[in-house]
Structure formats: structure tokens, C-alpha cells
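Why does residue order matter? Because the sequence determines the fold. Keep that principle in mind as you read this record.
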Amino acid sequence: RASQVLITTGSQQALDLLGKVLVCPESPVLVETPTYLGALQSFSMYEPRYVQVPTDDNGLIPEALTPELTKGARLLYAQPNFQNPTGRRLPIERRRALAEFAKSAPFPVIEDDPYGALDYRGEPLPTMLSMSPDHIVHLGSFSKVLAPGLRIGYIIAPEELHFKLVQAKQATDLHTPSFTQRIVHEVVKDGFLDTHVPKIRALYRDQCEAMLGSLERSNATCPKA
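Structure:
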């Protein structure tokens, strides 16, 4: 719903707004092990206590979210698609488990998804937002699929949290520049991304295969793509 969407000055600002609204000094914040440095930089301004959620080669382990681990948590931050820095992609079974967990969790589950549209090895997996639209806070960005310099991102949040994020946004910069919002609108309104995204997927696939081939020829050890 439109009432759940907040345009931000890049999705990095979305992380900062979530920190402003949700994080207090010494409050527990649940993060993957390891996690995105930019998220840690944003949340750290509000002096949380980080709690590491166990992961494996498939990403965050939902069964690890026990009452003992999550006690007092203010949020859970996760990147299900091509997690930064590991590149892991969360399997659909774990997405369903996290979406179900979010329905009863006493804190927001944050789905940071800047890379979801760029899967060049198969069809994109469904978002956790699509599985639990009233309980997942979803972050997106046009930086990876259009142009990073435009600094246009967005948050989709439950309406109660959305209201507080709007207040924090207004106190920060009033609004994201209308000019750059209009540029993005004009570019994408006629379906440009439908043809553009497959092209950049193919480009990234070719670059990845070239890099892996070079590593193999140099006898370096590298993970599977």
C-alpha cells in the first residue's frame, strides 16, 4: 500500500532512520554473522549492543532465534539476497521461517534488499515482504539497478512504524529531493527497468565468470558462484 512507502535519500538513509526510531543506547540489535558494514555504521550512532545471530553457508539460521538470544531486541537486520559481505542467498524455506517468525516477534524484522533484482543465475526468490506484508520492514534501492548517484531508496513498513519513520525523515532533511524522484519516475514509468535489468544481469554474469576463470587459471581458491 502507498501508505506504507517512504522514499529515502538512498537506502543508507533508511538504515539511519530505523536506528533513530528503534535503537537506544545498549539496546540489543540482532545481526547476521558477518553483516553489512554500512548497517553497523548507521546503527552504531545510537550505541546499541550487537547480538550475533548464527549463520551457515545458506545464511541466517532461523532456528537460532531463541527467546534467550532475542530477549529485549529492538530489531533483526538481515540481507536475504546476496548478503554483504558473504554473497549468500537465503533459501526459500528459511525466508518462510523468518516471515513466520516476524508475525509474532516483538520487534521489526528488517529485510534489506538492494540486490534482489540482479540474480543472474536463475529466477529471483520471493521477498519476505511478500510472505508477511504486515510484519516485514523492506528496504529497497534504485542505486544498483539504475544509478547510484541519484540516491533514491525506499522503506516499506507497517503503518504504525511508517508514521514514526516519516517524523524522523522530516526532522533529518524534510524530504528527498523532488527533482531526483522525478528523474527516476520518468525513467521507469514506461517499463524501462523491464528491459534494462536483464541487460545488466547479463553484464554482471559475464564479469563474474571472467573473474572466476581468472582465479582458476591462477590456481587461487575461490567459492562457487
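The chain has two domains: 2-185, 190-221.
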